[in-house]
Amino acid sequence: MRYPPRVTVVEVGPRDGLQNEAAEVSTADKVAFVDRLSDAGCPVIEVSAFVSPKWVPRMADAAEVFAGIRRRPGARYTALVPNVAGLERALAANVAEVAIFAAASETFSLRNINQTIEQSMAGYQNVCARAEQAGVRVRGYLSTAFGCPYEGAVAVARVVELSEALIAMGAF
Predict the structure, then answer these.
(1) Which secondary-structure segment (H or E) carries 119?
(2) Domain boundary at 61, 80, 99, which?
(3) What is the pTM for the complete model shown?
(4) Residues 139-171: pLDDT tens digits?
């Protein structure tokens, strides 16, 4: 097996780590958290998510957080987007890179985003097409690639198929 000559660590704490916190985290504290990660030299930081505040209220201030952070030269500051509406909000906030998140198991996809894998991939195709028009990079996630908490083992062939589909639509 050949390994890549280099990997990049993507810090998702400001988004994934804070999105389900029971306690309210202020916008100022989120900005300070991202700034400290920048100061520590993190090469890629997923700052927030442009998702529905109805479903993920902790990310309602995504645009304000992006407006407040200090951007270190050479670092990348990304946002998770579930659909074209989220992408448009990210574009309005001057986000230069977004992430999309598919799942390798149907049950996880339905429970996480209330869509089948097929539905989510169709939506992500639209996100990638619009992002390409806007000159914005798209990073693709594949949740449950190493197993699903609901279904157990996930077939390697399915992971490969979905990974190839994400790459074909323009995600890296």
Answers:
(1) helix 117-134
(2) 80
(3) 0.91
(4) 999 999 999 999 999 999 999 999 999 999 999
